[in-house]
Amino acid sequence: MTIMVTGGAGFIGTNLIITWLAQGGEPVVTLDKLTYAGNSLNLNLLPKDRHTLIVGDIGDRELVRKILTDYKPRAILNLAAETHVDRSIDGPGTFIETNVVGTFNLLEEVRRHYGALEINDAENFRFLHVSTDEVYGSLGPQDPPFTEKTAFAPNSPYSASKAASDHLVRAYHISYGLPTLTTNCSNNYGPYQFPEKLIPLMILNGLTEKPLPVYGDGQQIRDWLFVTDHARAIIEVLNKGRVGETYNIGGGAEKSNLEVIRSICTLLDQRKPIGRPHADLIEHIRDRPGHDRRYAIDSTKLSSEIGFNPQMDFETGLSTTVNWYLDNPSWVESVQSGAYRQWLDHHYGKAPLNGQEIDSLKS
After folding, report:
1. Count of domains in the chain?
2. 33: domain range?
3. In this model, does residue 351 exceed pLDDT 70?
4. What does the mean pLDDT of the chain come to?
5. Which candidate in 114, 158, 172, 247 is catalytic?
6. CATH label of the domain that carries residue 65
7. Residue 197 pLDDT more than 60?
8. How much is the pTM?
9. Which of 1, 46, 158, 185 shows the smallest number of beta carbons within 10 Å?
10. Does 201 fall in a domain?
């Protein structure tokens, strides 16, 4: 038996496969397009007899059909996606192509494959789709956390494309009987995360004494989930989840962006001092369009039905993450290409806000 992971060379996919194989799971075949955020180096240390990497697009139906025919996976875990909100605002077309059209093409081939399975194989087959809490929109300071029944209200091209893919997965279950599962997670952090996201960006900028760019007043709140806990939760949902259901996966750690950044600065002060506090590098820049103010996840359904709760508290997880980036300079260097540096200059090279502007945002 085999499982198939799409997007397995990315941040969450890499940690999922490592966790899966460490738990003694079946061999894995990974399909990954290896875009800028996918890195084959992440998977190099996996045992060759238990993992196979195939470079390709989930939208390539001929390739997907061949993989399904050759490997006959008993489950497909779909993590292939464009995921960065800032990039989706600059260029939404790629997000629609991958997250919506790509998911549709993948579902079509999976539906064809599922329809040809023998009865016993069909009963055990699962398609698990990994999504985000951003499909639910933004919460006010006193609003209750998102549940699986919260109405979708996406506010960026990224979250809208993921909401569309979630709807497609649900429709393929209802219309065609495809045995699907969907998970919606909060903000992930941990090893192997591409340094365009908040935590690794701040770690690496801090190490090189570059500005630490903070959108607006920095009081946007996110629920933080350590990536290994997320991987464990996905596996538990795959094994125990009810077909057709959605499960929210949260970390139970609501923090403002500024609070997270200051915690990173404190850790860097201890481990890589630069002669002044790293917090001196913080620069507030103009907020991005449609920036959601707060996300929070209610994971009661996951806990009560599946029996899963996260193990990593935020302080320990953040310390572990900082250490990983300090201990893996060759990996860091491998992902910091010229294109990556150009992106940072383009997107974060904005004039910092002055004190009066910051105060006005808080009022």
Report:
1. 1
2. 3-194+226-249
3. no
4. 94
5. 158
6. 3.40.50.720
7. yes
8. 0.94
9. 1
10. no
